[in-house]
Structure formats: C-alpha cells, structure tokens
Amino acid sequence: MSTGTRFKAQHEISDGVRSKRIGESTAPASIPHPNREHAIKRARLTAGFPNIVNGQRIESSRLMKISDPVTGEELASVTDTQKDALDHAVLAAKAAFPRWGNKTWNERRALLASATEELKAHTDELCTILTAENGRPYSMAQFEVTWVFDTYVPALLQMKLPDTTWNETGVGQITKRYVPLGAVAAISPWNLPFLLSFTKVLPALLTGNTVVLKPAVFTPLTVLRAADYIREILPPGVLNVISGGDDLGPWMTSHPGFQKVSFTGSSETGSKVFASAAPTLKHLTLELGGNDPGIVLPDADPQAIAENLFRSMFALSGQGCVTLKRLFVHESIYQAVTEALIACAQHQKLGDGFDPETTLGPIQNRPQYARMQTTWEEIQEAKTPILYQGKVPSEGAGMFFPVTLLDNPPAEAAYVIRENFGPLRAVFKYRDLDEAVRLANGTPYGLGASVWGTDPDSLEAVARRLDAGTVWINQHLNPHPNVPFSGHENSGIGIEFGEDGLKAFCNVQVIANRR
Predict the structure, then answer these.
(1) How far is residue 421's CA from residue 400's CA, in Å, rounded to a whole number?
(2) In this predicted model, what pLDDT tens digit does every residue of 109-157 receive, in sequence order?
(3) Has 287 been annotated as catalytic?
(4) Could you give the 3-state DSSP secondary structure of residue 264?
(5) pTM value?
(6) Which of 24, 77, 435, 465 gives 19 a disulfide partner, CB atoms 3.0 to 4.6 angstroms apart?
(7) Of residues 287, 344, 419, 506, which has the active-site annotation?
C-alpha cells in the first residue's frame, strides 16, 4: 500500500474464505447482515434508556446520541447528566448507605443473587444491545454477559471477609474487621462495558457500599437497560446508573461525596483521575492500559500454540487492555510461528456482529479509529515490513481496521511502545533471551505478560523476570474471579478480583479490647 493510505469501509473485501472459528472456512458475507434488523427490534431500543437513580427512572431533555459502529446510524439517545443530577445521585447513594451497610453479608448476598438472576433471564436482550452498541460478534457479547453470570457471580457470592480475632500481649483481644467505605464512584470503559461495570458494582455492593456507576460515553445502553431491570430488587439508592459526556467523569472523581473511585480506562485518563481524587483523599482502584508482551521460547510447538496466540492478540478486535500486543519469538522458530499466525489471520472475517460468520468487528468509536489511522501512517512512514494485512468490508460505514501483523519492527519505536488498541500487533525475532526480556519489560506498562514453551523450569524462570501484574504460562488473557488482578507501573493502582479485590472496597477497623 502506498504511504498515507487510510482504511475505510469502502475498501474491497478479501477474496479469501473466512470462518467463524479459526481454521474453518466459510463464504464472504455482506454488511449489514439481515439478522440485524430483527435482532434490534427484539431488543426494544425504543423503550428508552433513562438514568436509574434512587430506584427511579429519571428522564431528561438533555440527550446524547449513541451510534452503531457498524452502520454509523443512531441506535438510541441517553441522558447527558449534568452536575445537579450527579449531586442527586450522590445524595441517593449516601442516604442508602447506612441501611445497606448495616445489612448482614448474607442479606446483601441474597439480594445480589436475586438481582443477577433477574438479569440472567434477559440474557438474549442484553447480548443483542451489546452487539449493537459495541459492534463485536454476537458470540463475543454472549461470552461477556454469560461470563459475568456463570463464572464471576458464583465465585463472588462464595467469598466472605470474616472478622478475625486473636490475643496480643499488652493490648488484649484484637478483632480485625473489614467495613465498607461509603458511596463509590464506578467508571467503566467501552470495550467490555457490561463485564467491567458489574465486576465493579457487585463487589462494591457485596461489601456494603453504595454505588453511582457511569458507563462509557460510547457504550452505555446495555448497562442502563440492566440497571432498569433490577431497580426494584435492590433498595432505592443502592445502585444508581447515570450516563453522560466527557465532563461527567471529572465531576465524579472530584466529588466530595464519594469515598472511593473505581476506574477502568487509559493510563492517560487514569493519571487525571488520580489527580482529581487527591484533594479529597479518595480510595482508588485504577485498572489502566497495557502493552502486554509474550515470549515464545525455542522449544515451543508453533502449531500447538498458534490459535491460542492469535486469540490472545486479536480478541475484541485487539481492543483489550490485557490482550497480547508484542510477541517475541526465538529466531529458530520465527518463520514457523509467523506462518501459523498468518494462517489464522487468513480465516478471519471482519463484519457485522449480527452475521454469525463474523469473527472480528469494527473499531468501536471514531476517536479510537483516528488513533489507529495515525499509528498506521507512522508505520508507513517508517517503511516497517508487514507480515500480513487483511482487508476491510466494502459496504457500510463501519470503522473497520484490517488485521495487521508487523514483521520485526524496531522494538523501541514510538508506535510499538504505546498501547495499540486495535487489530494491529507486532512480532519480533530474538536470539538472546536476556535481550527479549529487556525489550518485553521496556514499556511504561505492566498489566499482563506470557511465556510459551514446553520446559517447566525455563517457563517459570522467564515468568519471574517479567514486570507485570499477571504473567501467564502457555496462555494469555485468562483472568479468573478468584485470582487477584492488578497492574504494575502505568497499568494501574490497586487490585480487582479475589478476596483482595473485595478488601479494596473496605476500610480495616481494629477493636483492641483490654479486659
């Protein structure tokens, strides 16, 4: 391609066959898919998406339009919440806190179980809305929603933070308790809006806090609809969900009524959240960006790991903070690994998420699409070799970026060091393992990493040298609700998941009883 080429929906579709699953063939498809109209009609988008505050639907005349990233058409309108409405939501959360916080753990757990069971009954509708507003394949929307219901919720509701008691000489009987903080501001991102909203909301509520949740400006619909379904199950004010534009987030993070902010988003925005919350000394959990490396050792089997590698790199069309973004492959198997990855890439189909043959969707929003275009222009200007580049659909107005694999680019180039939030990945050839580890650790991020091979001792040794909150061995992008998840360096502050994630929503209180 010539320098300056931009990827648009008008590009020709690839002649090659593609498949829903890697390795299976299918015919090319058009966009949009005829299933779309029927599915969206079932999802009742015209029923509205009001804010939910104090158990009530709050309508507004000040609205924002939410667009379909595949067609470019308007899906629905939501409230553009202003300061006075935020204050109302915070007051509702604060008023509900004493009674909610004083309920027993089992009482709160039972109410949350009822709420999630109600949501589970609407799985198809939630998945449809999620596909429409996010653009990804319906199967990925199903994965996101059902992972919350079938994996996350059962694990969370088994957890508990009991008091612990012991005797300490000279002090007396010591009781350590975990007590709720108060009202929590939760701000979730657009790439996994349902999952990353409820993995904030549910542990906050279980530990006795109340919540005001702001879903992302580009993808608020699924979360607002979910909140509407459970507004009469949870007591008024316990969960409040408000939509809004770019001003709402800073208003929330600086609001004196919140005791904690739980935020997922970019590292750049995370630093602003940190500064905004500092004057009121709020508790913070920041799950931020990542530029995850993977190191493939010389004893790895290229064919055995290729599909797992590819999925780890291109899940969510590469729009994931903890997807594998930089792959370091030993020179002895570089050709075999890259050929296997290319074979996987050739079977992908970009398109409408309602088309069952689609495997990858568009870039979700225009600002992110523009960032990807700028990065591509830098790559072209540098004349970086390309291992593989797919095509984008020829019809529709979707913001599609082709699956792209870079061939051994400079590991310290600016377009490699920063996080690429899209289907663009770099593969590097290394000879010296020490150098591969140095380069793997050579970004400001430290969210996830992985090592691939067959020798257990070598895998463990390399894993311990990588600077990341989670280092997977022969896997990547595989969090679990019982396993703590955190970032190093610019990838975040605090912990999510596991009992450590619950404790992040609590203060520690010690009662020292000298009898």
Answers:
(1) 13
(2) 999 999 999 999 999 999 999 999 999 999 999 999 999 999 999 999 9
(3) yes
(4) strand
(5) 0.92
(6) 24
(7) 287
